[in-house]
Amino acid sequence: MLKHTGRRQQILVALVAFLVSALATVLASTVTTASPSVQPGSDGKSGSPGATSTKPSAPSSLSDPRKPLPIGLAYGDTLTWKNDQELAVGLGDAVDSGAKWIRVDLSWNDIQPDSPKTYEWQRFDRVLNGARARGLEVLATIGYTPKWARKAGCSTDDACPPADPAKFAAFARDAAKRYASQGVHMWEVWNEPNIPFWAPKPDPAGYTELLTATSKALRQADPQAYVLMGGLAAVGTDPSIAYVSQGDFLTAVCKLGGNKVVDAISYHPYTYPYLPSAKTSFGTAMEDISSAQGNLVSILAGNGTPDLPIWITETGAPTNGPGTATDGKTIPPDTTHVTEAYQAAIATDTVQAAAANPHVGAVFWFSDQDTGQAADKQHRSMFYGLRHFDGTPKPALAALKAAILAYEHSR
After folding, report:
1. Does the pLDDT value for residue 105 go beyond 80?
2. Which residue has the higher pLDDT, 239 or 31?
3. Rounded distance, CA 188 to CA 315, Å?
4. Has residue 18 got a pLDDT over 50?
5. Contacts with 231 (C-beta within 8 Å, 6 or more apart), sequence order
6. Neighbours of 101 (CB within 10 A)
7. Which residues contact 76 (CB under 8 A, 6 or more apart)?
8. Alpha-carbon distance 283 to 291, whole Å?
9. How many Å apart are CA 113 and CA 162, to the nearest integer?
10. What pLDDT, in 10s, does the model give residues 339-380?
11. Which residues, including other chains, have CB under 8 Å from residue 195's CB and lie 6 or more apart?
12. Domains in the chain, ordered, with CATH?
């Protein structure tokens, strides 16, 4: 009797184990079928028309911490106009630094300067072909309006917005159709729209209208398109010079739904004369990402997109000019430049600070080469390069390379 009872118990236990295993398998299958992997831009956000679940492979360290932080050089519109030898040297800076990405302008004004019926695609083709030959990924900043498409009364500056955002979006669609097959899927829509790079003054509503139309057009042309809001300049709001702070501008765009039509926002936190990782009594531009009061992450969270990555698509420091800072402690009055040694320290710290912040999706150093000479030292914009105007390297080139290598080895 005891023997038969034990046998029945064994059979019963085996049957229960089988049923539990079968049920677990069915549940797992159901969850997998019902909950596909969610990629940026495919989460059902109301303002993401044309988005699909297929996205490029390097969107963000926040969305997938296993992925390396994209690190690149930002060139603006300089590469387009270089001869073949100069272009090779410029792209060689990215390779020499260890960067895997470049950020370059795909200017509407460059491609269709004279007419809506003619295209000068070969200007960007050269840059893309050179980048691809060197194994570099491309973030294209699409912006700048040809004269024939500008708003009335704003006809002398390619920073003028288009009279018709739909025409800008149509150009973006044409660009995406042309270059998606060549591996370009990353798009930044305009540059620093919170200062007069959107001429004659910033207009959050006008920019959001353009961003919404362009995002839709890019995704219609390329389901893999990854769309970034135009890089916000790190400035304080000052109506006298037509500046709107990055926080005020982002808040206004978010209220209009602009954060729901992009996969990431872009930001330009030039922190000099302080290191990017510095914490000062009045904050640095890098702190405005996630730690300072009213930071960008808190604005995004308050508007329904707490996990939207922040791409640093420009940062750097100009060298050797009036009020030159030698470190982040003793700051000369009216500081406008840093020493070359301190620029190198900033380059090192930039990589480290970006990698340490989980909200940062990528970081790009501006720029590869100075565009001015000694006589022009008062102009900061000319001296952000890793190399001097004559092509000789600054210490920052080696420092950036070492920082990128150290980051890669740390993963």
Report:
1. yes
2. 239
3. 16
4. no
5. 141, 188, 191, 192, 266, 267, 268, 311, 313, 314
6. 21
7. 104, 105, 366, 367
8. 9
9. 13
10. 999 999 999 999 999 999 999 999 999 999 999 887 788 888
11. 202, 233, 235, 242, 243, 244
12. 72-410 (3.20.20.80)
Query: How far, in Å, CA of 327 to CA of 12, rounded?
Result: 76
> Judging by DSSP bridges, how do beta strands 101-107 and 360-366 pair with one another?
unpaired
Q: Quote the distance between the C-alpha of residue 315 and its chain's center.
A: 11
Question: How many Å apart are CA 107 and CA 123, to the nearest integer?
Answer: 10
**How are the residues of the chain apportioned to helix, strand and coil, as percentages rounded to the nearest 5?**
40, 15, 45
Which of 341, 397, 342, 390 is CA-nearest to residue 367? 397
Report the percentage of the chain scoring pLDDT > 90.
Answer: 73
First to last CA, the chain: 64
**Cα gap 80→107, rounded to integer Å:** 10
Residue with tokens 């969107």: 59
| 307 burial type by CB count under 10 A (0-12 exposed, 13-18 middle, 19+ buried) | middle
Query: Which two structure tokens, joined as six digits, stand for 171?
Result: 């150009």
Q: Within the chain, how many helices (H) and strands (E) appear?
A: 10, 10
User: Tokens in use for 178?
Assistant: 């042309």
Residue 177 per-residue DSSP state: H
Residue listed under structure tokens 């996969």: 263
Check if the beta carbon of residue 335 is closer than 8 Å to that of residue 353: no
What secondary structure, in 3-state letters, does 241-310 show?
A: HCECCHHHHHHHHHHCCHHHCCCEEEEECCCCCCCCCCCCCCCCCCHHHCCCCCCHHHHHHHCCCCCCCE
Entry field: residues in the chain: 411
CA distance 312 to 404: 15
